[in-house]
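Chain A, query sequence.
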Amino acid sequence: MDSTVPLLRLQGINKSFGPVQALTDVDLDVPAAQVTALCGDNGAGKSVLIKCVAGIHEPDHGQIFWAGRPVHIRSPRDAAQLGIETVYQDLALADNLDIVQNMFLGRERLRHRLLDEDDMEKAAAATLRELGVTTVGSVRQPVASLSGGQRQSVAVAKAVMWHSKLVIMDEPTAALGVAQTAMVLDLVRALRTHGLAVLIISHNLNDVFAVADRIAVLHLGRMAVQDSVSRFDRRRVVEYMTSGRAGSAAGEPRAETGADNVPA
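Chain A, predicted structure.
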């Protein structure tokens, strides 16, 4: 794939629910091997947008491109076949199962028609090790016994185990303490190091500036701006989040309306 072509490109995405217009002409580029932070106030359309990418919602209008070619994502299965995995806030882990069982839930490996426990255990341990997750004592620990940061690590490891190319993370550090947040941010960096694209939704601008390569800001269902993180500071991100606009000094990011860039 041409390195200048983003792994994921959304063009003119529209989505409404009855009379409510949730997304209007949204464009978004998510390059490979980079972390893109999707920011926006409550109700800006962030969750609707990622659910369009994850196959939960189908856009009313617009086009999705994957590695430069147009695709239709009508279900989570379609997303998974492309290499898109989503880690939602609730993590979708089963507390009564151990780490291995969670990571292979619904995708169990069989040998002679029996569960291949040894193979699954080795694969789970290897994936956690590759991602630098060292705080988990045993992959046979029940998920209920894990800390918030460890649970997030297991959910991400489960996502990347299936040859994913893009991992979407919805508020991955919400309600985590300082040490657990640092663990999750290290995990995001590890995904980037392994060549994966990461699309992360976060209200925490400290986290955004700690790991993001690019920032995109939604405001009232429209893409207000997207650019390299170096073009922003916290004040400008907040301005875009709250008003959809920012100062117009030279060198500042330019707001986007549809496919056109206009001065903010």
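The longest strand covers residues 20-30. The chain has one domain: 8-262.
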